[in-house]
């Protein structure tokens, strides 16, 4: 059972990763656009238990680290996404008011994306990487948050369906 | 269920974080395996990226255009403006080129006959509605132009000054129906009267019934008394058709003007005729046939025999 879940979810992430790297990265949207992969990861983690959330973050972060378009050290995304994945799953399980409310889920995902990028930049600074001007990354972080708010409501039904069919839980929106 | 506080889950979290820190450390230490992993990922991804880029580039450009609509539009606007400006400059340049060309030829002509001329630009073509054929030039009394002065272009006679204003003059073209000029057939002493017809052709009437005219004869202005209205020697036109009527009192012929009266840009007003008649000096040269180039190819036998000749 565990193998099946692991295999299916990692295939989904792998396909999405390839799509993100080859297709979605070519769309140039205002405000820096959004990362579908990141939104998907956030939604997935928020629908899962904290353990699965952390493992999801680990897998997704590993893939992002391997992405050729990424120039940070391998493991940076992994570290960030483990923490955020765990945290977002923990938050959603820990607070009953967030559960079952699609709107709060969307907000949670958007905040998750913004925090992820912020933490990524922060770790980048700690690791002594060149992260560009403050204006540039503020724009990208805020833009990603706004785009996530716009895009996530359309993705959530699909993600929720996929998640449910794999984990066979009674999670619904 | 509150899973957050579970020991197992905390252990898992710690293991994962330690793993990621381990990865970061390895990569920052420059272990080759890590870079190899990324290279491998790129190798796997590149065909997908190439395919997607092939399919998606137009769509991506479309999105990018939408995103930068304002910028694209303003860029388009400025390019259009620039384009229009450059096109206008080309047009101006072309018309200046034409003017320079006409000016050059008219100065050549005037110089050959040692006429003293005043150059002028044609600023208006007279209206065709009034049946008279006139032009207005931008030189008038200020340039010492007076009535009945001969106006020439690089090709030949254009007309005669009809009215003089302070800064402009009205010129009656040689094609005007009321225009008359005494002409002489070049190389001969035959004289006649050329009358404008309102077209690019005029009618020549020879005064002497005994004289003969043939197609291709060049006509020159005969010159008037006191050089007004016509200075002598100005090329007028060429005979294109001879009306061969035996019973007529005098021979008539059709003449085409040398000057292109409908496309005049720069003309010259002859303000002073030369001291002596230039006679036939201004007859335009016969068109010189362009030599056809011939190509001669020398074939040198090559030192090494070709395989086909080898037996």
Automatic annotation (TrEMBL), chain B:
Belongs to the MreC family. Keywords: Cell shape. Residues 127-270 form the Rod shape-determining protein MreC beta-barrel core domain. Pfam families: MreC. GO terms for cellular component: plasma membrane. InterPro entries: Cell/Rod_1 (IPR042177), Cell/Rod_MreC_2 (IPR042175), MreC (IPR007221), MreC_beta-barrel_core (IPR055342). PANTHER family: CELL SHAPE-DETERMINING PROTEIN MREC. GO terms for biological process: regulation of cell shape. Gene3D superfamilies: Rod shape-determining protein MreC, domain 1, Rod shape-determining protein MreC, domain 2. This is Cell shape-determining protein MreC.
């Amino acid at each position: 059972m565990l193998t099946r879940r692991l295999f299916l979810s990692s295939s989904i992430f792998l396909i999405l990763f390839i799509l993100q790297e080859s297709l979605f990265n070519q769309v140039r949207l205002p405000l820096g656009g959004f990362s579908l992969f990141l939104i998907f990861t956030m939604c997935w983690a928020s629908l899962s238990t904290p353990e699965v959330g952390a493992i999801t973050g680990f897998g997704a972060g590993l893939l992002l680290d391997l992405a050729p378009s990424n120039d940070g050290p391998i493991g940076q995304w992994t570290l960030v996404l483990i923490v955020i994945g765990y945290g977002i799953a923990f938050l959603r399980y820990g607070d009953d008011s967030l559960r079952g409310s699609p709107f709060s889920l969307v907000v949670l995902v958007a905040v998750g994306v913004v925090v992820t990028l912020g933490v990524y930049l922060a770790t980048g600074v700690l690791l002594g990487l060149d992260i560009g001007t403050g204006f540039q990354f503020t724009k990208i972080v805020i833009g990603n948050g706004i785009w996530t708010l716009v895009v996530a409501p359309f993705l959530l039904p699909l993600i929720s369906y996929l998640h449910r069919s794999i984990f066979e839980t009674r999670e619904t929106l | 269920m509150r899973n957050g506080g579970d020991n197992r889950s905390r252990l898992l979290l710690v293991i994962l974080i330690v793993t990621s820190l381990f990865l970061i450390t390895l990569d920052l230490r420059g272990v080759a395996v890590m870079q190899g992993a990324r290279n491998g990922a790129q190798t796997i991804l590149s065909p997908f990226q190439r395919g997607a880029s092939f399919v998606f580039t137009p769509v991506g450009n479309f999105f990018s255009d939408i995103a930068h609509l304002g910028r694209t539009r303003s860029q388009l606007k400025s390019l259009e403006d620039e384009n229009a400006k450059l096109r206008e400059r080309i047009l101006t340049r072309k018309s200046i080129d034409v003017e320079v060309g006409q000016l050059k030829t008219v100065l050549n002509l005037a110089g050959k006959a040692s006429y003293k001329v005043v150059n002028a630009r044609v600023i208006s073509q007279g209206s065709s509605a009034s049946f008279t054929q006139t032009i207005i030039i931008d030189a008038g009394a200020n340039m010492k132009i007076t009535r009945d002065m001969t106006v020439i272009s690089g090709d030949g006679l254009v007309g005669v000054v009809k009215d003089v204003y302070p800064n402009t003059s009205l010129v009656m073209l040689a094609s005007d129906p009321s225009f008359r000029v005494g002409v002489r057939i070049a190389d001969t002493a035959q004289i006649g009267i050329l009358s404008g017809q309102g077209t690019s052709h005029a009618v020549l009437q020879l005064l002497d019934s005994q004289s003969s005219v043939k197609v291709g004869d060049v006509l020159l202005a005969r010159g008037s008394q006191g050089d007004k209205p016509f200075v002598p020697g100005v090329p007028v036109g060429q005979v294109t058709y001879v009306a061969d009527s035996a019973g007529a009192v005098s021979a008539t012929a059709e003449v085409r003007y040398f000057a292109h009266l409908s496309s005049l840009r720069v003309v010259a007003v002859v303000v002073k005729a030369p001291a002596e008649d230039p006679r036939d000096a201004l007859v335009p040269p016969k068109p010189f046939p362009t030599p056809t180039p011939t190509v001669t190819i020398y074939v040198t036998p090559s030192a090494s025999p070709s395989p086909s000749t080898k037996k």
